[in-house]
Amino acid sequence: MQPILSRIAEIQTHLGLSVTKFALSIGVPQTTLSNMFNRDSTPKTELLNKIVEVHQVNPSYLLTGE
């Protein structure tokens, strides 16, 4: 799994949200997140921006882990 996907999963877990509830919180279909994880695909910038904005995640942490 790509490191950025691991960090997204870590954020989701830290918030105590299921994939479905996490997807709803950032305004994307649950299938979008599930497919991203299952296919190990790089998340789009819009999705990353929503995670940062909605859940007040440090963008540097999300992108680099620092």
The rounded Rg comes to: 11 Å
With helices defined by DSSP (H or I, 4 residues minimum), what is the helix count?
5
C-alpha termini separation = 18 Å
**Could you tell me the mean pLDDT?**
95
As a percent range, the share of helical residues equals over 70%
What oligomeric arrangement do these chains adopt? Answer: single chain
Strand content: under 5%
- Overall SS class: mainly alpha
Largest sheet: none
Number of strands: 0
Shape: globular
Low-confidence spans: pLDDT under 50, at least 5 residues?
A: none
One letter per element, helices H and strands E, the order comes to: HHHHH
What does this entry look like structurally?
- It is a single chain.
- This protein is an all-alpha fold.
- It has five helices and no strands.
- Helix 2 (19-26) crosses helix 3.
- The longest helix is centred in the N-terminal third of the chain and has 13 residues, at 3-15.
- The mean pLDDT is 95.
Secondary structure layout:
Blueprint (H helix, E strand, L loop, with lengths): L2 H13 L3 H8 L3 H10 L5 H11 L3 H6 L2
Helix pairs in contact: 2-3
List keywords for this structure.
single chain, 66 residues, mainly alpha, 5 helices, globular
Compact overview of the structure:
The chain has 66 residues and is mainly α. 73% of the residues lie in helices and 0% in strands. It is built from 5 helices and no strands.
